[in-house]
Write a structure and sequence with these properties.
The protein is built from 19 helices and ten strands. By secondary structure, it is of the alpha/beta class. Helix 8 crosses helix 11, helix 10 packs antiparallel against helix 11 and helix 18 packs across helix 19. The protein starts with a strand and ends with a helix.
Length: 483
């Protein structure tokens, strides 16, 4: 009768063939193999005609063509009265693309498909490495990983990557893995498991492409010895918020954490200004805590989860980068920025059609005033409210300064000073300079310069609070020369 029987041939040695598989193969009229290049083939029952699809790998330009042809041919054979026996390495449902496609096509074509289980490479790897698979072992196809830029792995848990079959794959795989793991991270090249030539070689990650590799090679990655995954950090924060956690963390709300979030953001900026990678690493962690805390609170309230936060920003990034994830062509960074602004404008217009919001609503009210002024100027310039030329805005700066000089009374002085600073922020935008960053850098220069003045004064035993302005100014000028 018409039927497709898919038989798992085990990892290599004939001794791993199951009793069921052996009985089916022994009574077959003929056997079709995905490939003859597998150690078990030499130990299959004698006298049974063997056919393979190996020629397709040589004649086709892509694996997709190979898989499509194999599936079509197996369906044709299976639809015949005698059916077909199709043998694949390992377990039919571990790393065998053609099997899942045959199962799907069989359902659509109403051709019965039977899967005969086999021992996969995974069981032999577990034995060779003395691992328990339920200890959170991650199993991934190395060919899927090399197509990415960051590995889809939790570094706190062990991982087994299959099909590291040559040095080119290993080299590309190494670069992706190094986006998450240190160069010296301990790994193991696991080769030819389930065969007499089985071997395990322990080595640092950076050396994996310097070894002899075959289609039977897998890579084992040990877990990090310290908590480093996003998921583990989420568990830490959720624990703090749990009934058995910390009383202070349990009491926090979105509102109570506002100041913390702002302070941590400023501390990140301070670390950037100092230029110390270790400080920046620490401060980014403190800022991340605030993000995860807010997401955990929202989860508990049923508002949203961290997955929603990530999904939203991921979708937004991909939507705003059609030149990366779409068909838009760009030639330089300027065209990228122009395209980005156009997409953002379309998003705002769509949002405004739903809700009558102001163009300025998206600018956070909690921004520092100088940064907020710059953001307001950028927003309104998008709808044409801007100065005709940079000379005009410079005139406005000078006019505002003159008004400030002639203003009388606290209210007038405050208003004139605000107008002057707003004009300066607009002038900075025309110069393509972030006024907030420029002022922060000026503050840093002032602090460093003043520290030098203090040092000179201490060395000369001259208390600053007891010195005349002229003397302090002289020290200021002197410190500039020394600098």
């Amino acid at each position: 009768m018409a039927q497709i029987t898919i038989v798992g041939l085990g990892p290599g040695s004939p001794m791993y063939l199951t009793r069921e598989a052996w009985d089916i193969l022994s009574n077959a009229g003929e056997i079709w193999l995905r490939t003859m290049h597998h150690p078990v083939v030499a130990g299959l029952p004698e006298g049974i005609p063997l056919h393979s699809f190996d020629t397709l790998y040589e004649a086709s330009e892509t694996f997709e063509e190979v898989y499509t042809t194999i599936v079509r041919r197996v369906l044709e054979l299976g639809s015949c009265e005698e059916g077909v026996i199709y043998g694949v390495p390992g377990h039919p449902l571990v790393g065998e693309v053609t099997v899942t496609r045959i199962l799907d096509a069989g359902r659509k074509s109403r051709i019965p498909v039977r899967v005969v289980a086999g021992v996969s490479f995974i069981e032999s790897c577990l034995t060779a490495l003395e691992l328990d698979a339920l200890d959170s072992l991650q199993i991934v196809d190395a060919l899927d990983v090399v197509s990415l830029h960051h590995p889809p792995l939790n570094p706190d848990m062990p991982a087994l990557l299959a099909q590291v079959y040559n040095q080119r794959v290993a080299s590309e795989l190494k670069l992706v893995l190094m986006n998450q793991y240190p160069d010296e991270h301990l790994t193991a090249i696991v080769n030819a498991v389930g065969t007499p030539g089985e071997s395990v070689l322990w080595l640092p990650l950076y050396e994996i492409d310097r070894q002899t590799l075959t289609p039977l090679t897998s890579l084992y990655i040990t877990p990090w010895q310290k908590t480093s995954s996003f998921e583990s950090f989420q568990e830490t924060v959720a624990y703090l918020r749990a009934p058995e956690g910390c009383p202070w963390d349990q009491e926090q709300t979105h509102e109570s954490l506002r100041t913390n979030l702002l302070e941590e953001a400023y501390e990140v900026l301070a670390a950037i200004d100092v230029g110390e990678p270790d400080a920046l690493c620490e401060e980014l962690g403190d800022l991340l805590l605030q993000v995860v805390l807010h997401a955990q609170i929202a989860t508990e309230e049923g508002a949203f989860q961290m997955g929603d936060v990530i999904a939203h920003i991921d979708a937004k990034l991909k939507h705003r980068h059609p030149h990366v994830w779409g068909t838009v062509q760009v030639n330089n960074a300027e065209e990228v920025c122009a395209n980005w602004e156009m997409i953002k404008r379309e998003e705002r217009e769509a949002s405004q059609r739903k809700q009558k919001h102001s163009l300025l609503d998206g600018v956070p009210r909690t921004l520092p005033a100088l940064a907020q002024a710059a953001a307001y100027g950028t927003r309104v310039s998008r709808v044409g409210l801007d100065w005709p030329a940079i000379e005009n805005i410079l005139e406005k700066v000078q006019q505002s300064l003159a008004e400030l000089a002639s203003a009388q009374g606290t209210t007038a002085l405050s208003g004139s000073l605000g107008d002057f600073l707003f004009a300066v922020a607009s002038y900075a935008r025309w110069l393509d300079i972030d006024p907030e960053s420029a002022l922060r850098e000026a503050n840093q220069r002032f602090a460093e310069h003043f520290a030098m003045v203090e040092q000179i004064a201490r060395e000369r035993n001259m208390p600053l609070d007891q010195m005349r302005w002229e003397d302090i100014d002289r020290l200021w000028q002197e410190s500039q020369v020394d600098k």
